[in-house]
Every structure is written in C-alpha cells, then in structure tokens.
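Quick one, probably user error.
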C-alpha cells in the first residue's frame, strides 16, 4: 500500500444543512389569536409548497434545553442550501425563530473497502500511481460508483418519527492519531465498525455527511428511527469498538420528533401531533 495514497476515496452527494432554533414563545403569545393564526397559516402554506415531492426538508420538535425546532435540508448543491436559508428568512414565522446552532456538510460515502481495489486495478493496467493516467482511471471508476450509489448519495429524508444528530472527529492527539495509522489498519477497523452499524440496519437509517473544511467538526451523523432507544443501543455498542473507543471525539447530541408541516399549527398551539411510535426493541419479560 505504500505506493498508494493514505487518503481513502470518497463519494459526495447532497449538500446538507441542519438548523437548530429557539422559538420566542413570549413574543408569540403576545400576539392576538387572529394574528397567530394568520402567521401560522401563511408559513405552513409556504413550507408545504417547498416540500412537494420526496422529502428534502423536514422539521422536528426538539427535546431539551438546546432549542425548540430542528430543520434539516438536503439539496443538490450549496447554492440551493443558501437559498433555503433565504427563503425561510422571508416567512412570517421567522421573526419568532432564533438560530442557536447550524451545521453544514455534504452526504459522504467513505470507500475504505473499495479504495485499494480501485487503486490496484489501475496499477494492474500498468499505470503509475500518481500519474494523470492513473488518476483518470480512478476518476472513471468513481464516476461509475457514483452512478450506482446515487440513491444513497442523494437520499430523501426518511419518514421515521425520531431524529438524532451529532458531529464527530477522528482523534489527532500526540499519542493516538487516526491520520497516522497505516491505511490497511484503518481499513480493518472501519470494516469492524461498519459491521456493528449493519446489525441495526433494519431499525436505524444512518446518513453520514462530511464537513471537513465546511464546519467545525469532520463529520455529521444523522440517525432516523421509530424508537429513540435504538439510538442509545447503537451508539453505546459502538463505544466498545476500537474506532470509537480509541479514535473518536463527539460533539453535542440533538434529539427531535418528526413534526409534519401540516401539524406545525398544532405545535404552535402547544400540541404535538405525531403518528404513534413503534416499539421495535422488545421489552424484557418480567420474571
């Protein structure tokens, strides 16, 4: 592997924006009922118009002190994401939203498993690693992979009831530095790490987005599930994995409950109207 790059290949897809708002309930309640109804109805109508087709934006009622509403947006590029920010700022309800945090990233598929195969295939054709011809061969392979993986690179937002989001880094300490570990060893660890996630594949939808050079952390992890307890079980199990136990740093965690746009008016009245949760993790039988 020494003649190849230590940097694994990646595929990038949708541009992603997470927004975390505090809602100004005091100012909202100071309005007349008629004015609240007008603002709510106009805002919902505008949001429903923008949400036509496969879900590319979604709203969640946030739990805890960090905020009240989470907006997430998937778009084809960053210009469209910026337009989403500008569009939201034009809504009547925006005067009552205080942006407390945001996260910018891009859907990323890390190719630790296939990077070496791609490089070795190009080298087997007699191409010199690092040469323009070698890179052209790699680029063509990546193009084919991107086409095959388009549904994962440009996903719709899952319909699941619960959302968990957190940012993370790989450790770059004096003693332990992920980026100084040989490629083959990183590949092995990432394979074992991925196998844990696959165990939960039927109850958790995971979307990893890269943010190096875009935001304060290196990756954002967005999890979707019908039962929030599964987030705890998945992340807890991964803490025992070498990648997380030795080389991972985590930021703050955010938890939200899906808020259908047509239920936003109910939310503004203090009512959380959602579909029933499905308990996908069996409770232990009493002894």
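Nope, works fine. Designed sequence:
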């Amino acid at each position: 592997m020494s003649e190849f790059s230590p940097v694994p290949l990646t595929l990038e897809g949708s541009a992603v924006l997470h927004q975390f708002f505090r809602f100004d309930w005091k100012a909202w309640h100071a309005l007349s009922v008629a004015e609240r109804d007008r603002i709510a109805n106009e805002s919902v109508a505008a949001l429903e118009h923008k949400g036509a087709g496969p879900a590319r934006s979604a709203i969640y009622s946030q739990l805890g002190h960090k905020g009240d509403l989470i907006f997430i947006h998937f778009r084809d590029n960053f210009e469209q994401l910026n337009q989403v920010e500008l569009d939201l700022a034009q809504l009547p309800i925006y005067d009552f939203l205080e942006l407390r945090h945001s996260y910018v990233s891009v859907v990323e598929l890390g190719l630790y498993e296939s990077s070496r195969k791609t490089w070795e295939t190009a080298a087997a054709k007699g191409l010199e690693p690092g040469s323009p011809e070698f890179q052209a061969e790699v680029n063509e392979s990546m193009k084919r992979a991107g086409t095959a993986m388009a549904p994962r690179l440009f996903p719709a937002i899952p319909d699941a009831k619960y959302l968990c989001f957190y940012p993370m880094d790989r450790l770059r300490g004096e003693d332990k530095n992920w980026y100084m570990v040989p490629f083959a060893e990183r590949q092995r660890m990432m394979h074992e790490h991925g196998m844990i996630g696959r165990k939960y594949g039927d109850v958790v939808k995971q979307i990893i987005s890269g943010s190096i050079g875009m935001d304060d952390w290196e990756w954002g992890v967005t999890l979707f599930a019908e039962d929030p307890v599964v987030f705890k079980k998945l992340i807890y199990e991964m803490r025992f994995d070498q990648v997380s136990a030795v080389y991972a740093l985590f930021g703050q965690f955010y938890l939200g409950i899906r808020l259908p746009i047509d239920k936003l008016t109910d939310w503004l009245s203090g009512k959380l109207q959602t579909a029933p949760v499905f308990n996908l993790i069996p409770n232990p039988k009493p002894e």
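The first strand starts at residue 10 and ends at 23.
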